[in-house]
Amino acid sequence: MVHSAVLNPALLASIKLTGIDWAIIIGSILICFVPALFYGKKSSESTSEFFASGQSVPWWLAGLSMVATTFSSDTPNWVTEQVRKFGVAGNWQWWAFVLTGVSTVFFFARLWRRSGVMTDLEFYELRYSGKAASVVRGFRAVYLGLFFNCFIMGMVTLAACKIANILFGMPYWQTIVICGVLNVVFAAHSGLWGVLIIDMVQFFIKMTAVFAAAYFALKEVARRTGVGETAFAGLQKLVETLGTQQVKVEGHEPVMSAIDGTGQPILNIMPNFDMWQLALMIFIVPIAIGWWANWYPGAEPGGGSYIAQRMLASKSEKDSLGGTLFFNVAHYVLRPWPWIITALCSIIVYPDLASIKEAFPNADPKLIGHDSAFPAMLKFLPVGFMGLMVGGLIAANSSTILTHLNWGASYLVHDFYRRFINPTASEKHYVNAGRFCTLLLYVVAAYLSTILSSAQEAFEILISIGAGTGLLYMLRWFWWRINAWCEVVAMISSFLVSVTFFIMKKQGHGLPFAQTVIISVAFTTICWMLTAFFGPQTDRKTLISFFKKVQPAGPGWDAVRREAGLPESTVKESGDHMGLATMGWISGCAVIWSSLFAIGKFLYGEYSMAWILTAIFVVSGLVLLRVIKKLWA
Prior knowledge:
Blueprint: H1 19-37, H2 40-43, H3 47-52, H4 59-70, H5 75-86, H6 92-95, H7 98-115, H8 123-127, H9 130-168, H10 172-225, H11 231-242, E1 245-250, E2 253-258, E3 264-265, H12 276-293, H13 305-313, H14 317-334, H15 336-349, H16 353-359, H17 373-377, H18 385-421, H19 427-449, H20 455-466, H21 470-475, H22 484-506, H23 513-534, H24 540-550, H25 558-563, H26 569-573, H27 578-604, H28 607-632
Antiparallel strand pairs: 1-2, 1-3
Helix pairs in contact: 1-10, 1-18, 4-10, 4-13, 4-14, 4-18, 5-15, 7-13, 7-14, 7-27, 9-10, 9-18, 9-19, 10-11, 10-15, 10-18, 10-19, 12-23, 13-14, 14-27, 18-19, 20-22, 22-23, 27-28
């Protein structure tokens, strides 16, 4: 087992910020938020400006905003928990979503922009017909905009509370109030334009902060292990030490020992397939099933939520495609390794929860878990960098909360209140309704944050509730038989089976998480597939109208195209070449994974494999650029 050095008594108390730190924190907040103040008037003009930025967002701003939004305050905590429990390979639970994200780039981004809707829920009454279409739109407006959205914000707020409690001994309520005032005021005032501008600035602050965290974590490893003072010496010692260690979860606690084949080697990027239950959970299910079958915010099969919001707000189809591609590369390549390195350092510094509790005696014991190891490592940041990190953490929290407040309010106002309750009010009335919903959403999210216990628990709940619905959200673009009742049946069946497994777990008869996902996916998929063939069909007039507007490719619409009297060349004119799109999808995934793993191998000092992966990156990158050039032509 890896042992930490004796803890420095001077570090046992909560961290104190200096005047320099406070100046940097205040400066970071001002740089992020002050520009957003100037967009209040523009956002008040209409709901299109408040929720969709007038559909005039350039690709680079849309892409940066997507990246910033998914870089929330709970993300490094969650990554740290996975690394401490399952090694680096535990990240396959989200690395598998590369397949989802890149498929959105090449198969769905242009279709979303072509649809011309303001929110992705408005899509339902464009694609489906009858009362069922209205029911699905109204239900999902509340289900996603209120319940799901607040649940995600609750996760992010929980992480913020843990970080503030570990670092500064702040009680729960203080963190909730401070974050609430900051985020609600700016979200209500500036609308999506303000969110986009804030996201752009926050991205660079957050990236600088997490690189600093990894750098000084490595210096602390070097100091504690007596190999010097430099980060490079710390990295070499980290690889040397953890390269011989494996981890096994016994009960709920990870236990480390020398590698003997019975555990997951900590530094390995791939899982130990001899441990089939672990491999099933962290790799096989995500890569074989999860990416196309499960709905998860930010990585929705077919696109959706705030990713769709940015695509719909883009000023053209090219901007929609370009922004989504940039997001996926930045999301999976630029960000992971600083988090992973900090998490690996935490294993040496804090080998168990007891060592974290010992280092932070003023922290609330109920808030300490393995996801607390990331904020615990931040105590080693020097003056100035601590201020930058706090500013970065505030930025990480705000970029996600601001997006979810605006996105959720757009659902509640545009897709529920305006559509079903008060359809004739003025634009100013709807904008004010959006501001009221912004406050309501944060209050609900703050309450939910007090119920959750860890980032992993929340992640599993979200995956369980959305299991089995993903394929439906992809096929509805390419197969006319998908109807509104399929969506109703998918939501109900997925929710019922997840509740069943939750009750079984509470009664002591729970199944491993991977097995519950497989069963949920199978049951839900069978239910909605039967509905597609035997349920009420979408009105043909609606199908023809949708096809003419969006012009989806593939054989799934041939019957509708022929009925509309349109030649096959109509689809080809739209530029959605499925062969090229497939090549772009494959090469895009290769670019992301090869570059991601090449960085890891360089850090590990495994240079032969690193250069092989680099060569794959170059070749697949050239193919990707050629595909994009042809698609845009």
